[in-house]
Amino acid sequence: MPGIIFFRSDNIREVESFYVNKLGFKVWFKNRDCLILKNGNLLIGIQKGNSDDKGIITLLLNEPRAVDNLFHELKEFTVNEPRFSEDCNTYECYIRDPENRLIRVMSFLNKSSSYLTGEELLLTRRSIREFEDRDVPEEILWKIFELSRWAPTSKNSQSYYFVVIKRKEILAKLASLRGRSSSPIGKAPIAVAICSDPSKSKRYVQDACIAAYHFILACWIYGLGTCWIAAMDRDDVKELLNIPKNHYIATITPVGYPKYVPNPPLRKPVNEFVKILV
Ligand SMILES: Cc1cc2nc3c(=O)[nH]c(=O)nc-3n(C[C@H](O)[C@H](O)[C@H](O)COP(=O)(O)O)c2cc1C
User: Fold this and answer.
1) Which residue of 11, 20, 141, 232 is most buried, as measured by CB atoms within 10 A?
2) Is the pLDDT of residue 1 over 80?
3) Residues 240, 137: one domain?
4) Are residues 27 and 130 in the same domain?
């Protein structure tokens, strides 16, 4: 359910400058006596009046490293050093805005549900090639497969299927097949092959590729990194994974918690790849 938490302020412009310049909020609505700020799914309203500082604004960040980064950028506003909290399995610190409102900045360590907006999901997903030495919880993996079921397929044939690879020796073998290109598989706790069965659909290639990208996005919702590893549709891989020779392997992706999230590589501006037919 969308909504807005409102506070009162006697210096709306100073509050605006803090949230926009220091915390990356966007102005969603603004007039003389009212300001609504947006960051991801969070909307905060500021209305003209006697400043109040009740309540705690909680900002949810995608990974503990982001909490550390914000802590260092906003040192003069911070209340305490980031720390792990066992109560809810979070990593968090507190800061105060210029009118003394308390802001908790936190990251859940094992997210059981998502808090990324659709926009953030598409903008922040990156190919991850280095992983933490941490298992992927089974219940999260199954939630990801539940989301993956909603990938579109030709005539709703659902010709795709997933093979989960956990055995270290198989991961090491797959990692070695294509040198640097396939090496990320050897650094993750598990890998998943996304395949399809040509007897189920004429469009089995598209079905598997779309299901693979659905899976990749679903992983990111839960803070799990992946990387599309190409050219795995090979007989030796099929033999290793017990996949029939005539089936198709769209990709085998490593899956795990990212060691770090790389900066986004450059993308072309939209006017270079959108052609409007006149
Ligand atoms: C069809 C396809 C094949 C790819 N093959 C590989 C691969 O074999 N190894 C690898 O490390 N990354 C591979 N990638 C990941 C790309 O390098 C990556 O998507 C691209 O550099 C953009 O980075 P981003 O995903 O972080 O936005 C592949 C991606 C696609 C879509």
Assistant:
1) 232
2) no
3) yes
4) no
Find the 236 Cα to ligand 1 centroid distance in Å.
22
Give the atom of ligand 1 at the shortest distance from the alpha carbon of 129. 11
**Residue 267 resides in a domain:** no
The overall average pLDDT reported for the chain is 93
Give per-residue pLDDT as tens, 242-252.
999 999 999 99
Q: Which of 129, 177, 227 to mutate to test the pocket of ligand 1 (most atoms within 8 A of CB)?
A: 227
Query: Is the residue at 269 inside a domain?
Result: no
Give a yes or no: residue 113 inside a domain: no
DSSP collapsed to 3 states, 231-273: CCCCHHHHHHHCCCCCCEEEEEEEEECECCCCCCCCCCCHHHC
Q: What is the pTM of this model?
A: 0.84
Answer yes or no: is 248 within a domain.
Answer: yes
pLDDT recorded at residue 60: 84
Atom of ligand 1 nearest to the CA of 184: 11
Half-sphere exposure of 246 toward its Cβ, with a 13 Å CA cutoff?
A: 5
Mean pLDDT computed over 89-106: 92
**Looking at the structure, do residues 127 and 236 belong to the same domain, yes or no?**
yes
CA 226 to chain centre: 10
CA of 180 to the centre of ligand 1 (A): 12
Separation of 219 CA from ligand 1 center, angstroms? 16
Structure tokens at 267: 């993308």
